[in-house]
Amino acid sequence: MKKLKFYNTLTRKKEDFIPLAPPTVTMYSCGPTVYNYAHIGNLRTYVFMDELRRALKYCGYTTRSVMNITDVGHLMSDGDDGEDKMQSAAKKQNKTPEEIAAFYSDVFFKDLERLNILLPETIAKATDNISEMIAFVQTLCEKGYGYETDDGIYFDISKFDGYGKLSRCNLDDALAGARVAVNTQKRHPADFALWKKAEKNHIMQWQSPWGMGYPGWHIECSTMSKKFLGERFDIHTGGVDHIPIHHENEIAQSEALEGHKVVNVWMHGEFMLVDGGKMSKSLGNVYTIDDLISRGYSPLAFRYFCLNTHYRNKLNFTFDGLNGAMTAYNRLRGIISACETAQNADDATLAQVQKQKAAVVDAVCDDLNFPLALGEMWTMAKLPACREIYDAAVELDKILGLELYKPLPAEKTDDVIPADVRAIAEKRFAARQNKDWATSDALRAELDGLGYSVLDSKTGYELKKK
Ligand code: AMP
Ligand code: ZN
What is the pTM of this model? Predict the structure, then answer.
C-alpha cells in the first residue's frame, strides 16, 4: 500500500495517514439534503469526496464509505430554527416529502454519474434509521448529556469538555455567538436539538419516548456513522461550512456516547464562489450541472475545472474560467486519446512516461494535490506521442476520473461547441442580464452567422448547433 498524507482539520496539520485496520479505510461523508437540485458548489464537495476515495483505492486500500441522504430534520437554519427543508419544499410543490426526496435523490445520483463520481459503498437514508436515532438520543439522556424541554430533547454542550475543538472556538465563544434563545427552556443558547417534538401540522413524525417527533439533523450523521462504520472510523468529510456547527455537534454527540474519540481525520472541502461571491437564488447565480450542459459545457470539463484547484482552496466559478478549463480539458484529452494508435515509445521516452506517471500518483498522495497531478499529465502529454501515454492515462483514470484516454465526441459527432462560440453566448447572456437588448440582439445575430441557435430559459439559455 502506498503512503498518503492528508490535512486534518482537527489538528490543523498535514499528517501521514494511518488507517485503523488496513487495508480497509472507513469513511463517512455528509450527503445532500434532498429538497432541491444540487448546485455546482455542492457538487464540488462530492468531487472532493470522490478524489479522496479514488486516491485511497488506487493506493491499495479497500474503502468502506457511507454517505447519508438527509430526507428529514434539516431545518432552514443550521441551528434549530425554521421549517424542515423537506416539508417546506413538499408544501410549495404540493407533493409529499417522500416524493420530493425521491425526485431530488434521483437527480443527485444522475449528477454524480455524469461527473464520474463513484458511489460510496453505503447510501444511508435518514428516514430508514429513525429507531437507531431514538436509541442514540436515549443513551445520551441516560448519560446526562440530553435534557427535555417543551419542544424537544437538547444536548447540553456545557457537559461535554471538548466542545469547540474542531473549529477551535471555546464554549464562551459558542455561547456568545449563539443567537438569543427563542426557546427559553434551553440551558445554554448554543445547546442544540437532538430530537424535536412535532407540531400537529408537521408532515413527518415518528413515535418516540418523548411523544411524536422527528430527529435533529446532527444526530442523523452520528447515528448512521456509528451504525455502518462502528464506534471508531478513519475519515469524515464535508464542506467547510459544516465545521463550526454540524461537525462540532457530531463530535459532541458521538464522543459523549462512546466516551472516546470517534473520527481520526476530519477533511473539509473549501467553498465554491460564483463571480467572487456567494451563490444565492436572489443573485440568480445558483447553477446546476444541467445549466452548464445546456450552455454547451461537458460535465467532465466541470470536473477538470474542480480538480484544477486544490480542495482546500476557494474556487471562484466564472464562465470565463469554465471556458478555459473546457478548452484545456478538450486539448489534453485530444492529445492523450490520439496516443491509442501511436507507435511504442523508445527507451528514453518510456522512462519519461513512467516518471510522469509516478509524479501524478505522488501529487495525489500528497493531500490530494490534483492541480499538480494535472500539471504532470500535461508534461506527459507533451512527450513524443506513444502508445504508453495512452496506457498510462487508462491506468491513471482510476484516480482522475476524467476519461482522458477516450476520443472526444466532437471528432465523431461535431457536437462540442468551440470555446469562442460559448464566449459569445456568455457575453450575450451578460448583456441580457443588464437589459442591453441591442448588444444581445447583435450577439445573437453573430451566433446565427456562425451556425448556432440560442434559446433563452429561466435559468440561462440553451446553445445548439443548427
Ligand atoms: P447541503 O445539501 O446543504 O447539506 O450541502 C451538501 C454539501 O455541499 C455539504 O457538504 C456542504 O458543505 C456543501 N456545500 C454547500 N455549499 C457549497 C459551496 N458553495 N461550495 C462547496 N460546497 C458547498
Ligand atoms: Zn453530516
Answer: 0.90
